[in-house]
Amino acid sequence: MCDTCGCSADGGAVLRKPGESDYHVHVTPDTEEHTHHHAGEEHHDHDHGHQHHHHEGTSRKIMLEQDVLQKNNLLAERNRGYFEARNILALNFLSSPGSGKTSLLEKFIPLLQQRFPVAVIEGDQQTTNDADRIHALGVPVIQINTGSGCHLDALMVNRAVKELDMQDNSLLCIENVGNLVCPALFDLGEALKVVIISVTEGDDKPLKYPTMFHEADLCMLNKIDLLPYVEFDVAKCRKNAMRVNHHLEWFEVSVKTGEGLDAWQEWLEKRLLHH
Amino acid sequence: MHEMSIAMSIVEAVVANAQKEGAVRISGIDLLIGKLAGIEPESLKFCFSSASKGTLAEDAVLAIDEPEGIGECGECGMRFPVTFYYAECPECRSLRIKIVSGEEFLIQSITIEEEGE
User: Fold this and answer.
1) Residues A227-272: tens digit of each pLDDT
2) What is the ipTM of this complex?
3) CATH number assigned to the domain with residue range A78-274, chosen from the 4 options 3.40.50.300, 1.10.443.10, 3.30.70.1280, 3.60.21.10
4) Are the Cβ atoms of B113 and A58 closer than 8 angstroms?
């Protein structure tokens, strides 16, 4: 049961907005969204009860050859088409919890938004803490709380986008749930996946979580200001990442000191002009 | 635990197809899950049993075929088995490997039961 509105929506993801404590929208698979205003109104699955009458107790094999993630992938393509039509560059930021995804956004968005409109979708199991931080920058933001979910999917992003005031020719940053495993499998409709690792995590991360690095387009190594204090071999980490995916673009940054962020900012602006 | 949401997608897809065909229940589901697809078959089976509760797929037996990973070298064209994404060509040591098999993730077929009048 939803603890905010007492409705019967179990487990699904919920959209929230910073500073609007009574705003929340459940992400349900039907096209109707259900808000807290209609608690108690249950959606019954229509039970057709229609049974076709065939021969007595036969079994039959039906070939499907259907992609298991087909539904997600189709919806992701719809998101992608929407972004393309409005010339919105959508980036999916992925990492373990604590690698600095939100801090990175806090650092570059203020510089970027003087030239390009920016909107943000935040994904976490619970709280609007990250969305509150982004809201403080004055950019449109939606928090997706996945509840028990370990990743964002295309449906959640589709619903979140409808709640966001997005402008043409803009940047959409989607910060996925902190997790180096599951989010790799779910296309959201983004143009590029950006994976972030930090020097406190170990230089073998790309080998331990190869699916994520294989799927990513760009890898950002964060917290390089801590290199003197940790055992982390940057060259080895980069080599490991390239072994998994030789197309990876590579950046080394410190969100804290700002080192290396010029290159990222330059890359991003170029991308925004020519995507 | 993305296997849970994947199990739910499978249930949704097979039930939709079975209903279209007028099935009274689904007795079998054939899946193709490549060894590089990022899915744990055992974990998926476990999740499937709870995701399918109360649906046409409740008693369905999951048969999972797991094709091996095969890489193709971008330099010399050699094909060889791979178990990871970071494979190296055994012939020329190149790391420019394209995965040509092992990433499959399909519902191949379902077996449905129909009941007479």
Assistant:
1) 999 999 999 999 999 988 989 999 999 999 999 999 999 999 999 9
2) 0.84
3) 3.40.50.300
4) yes
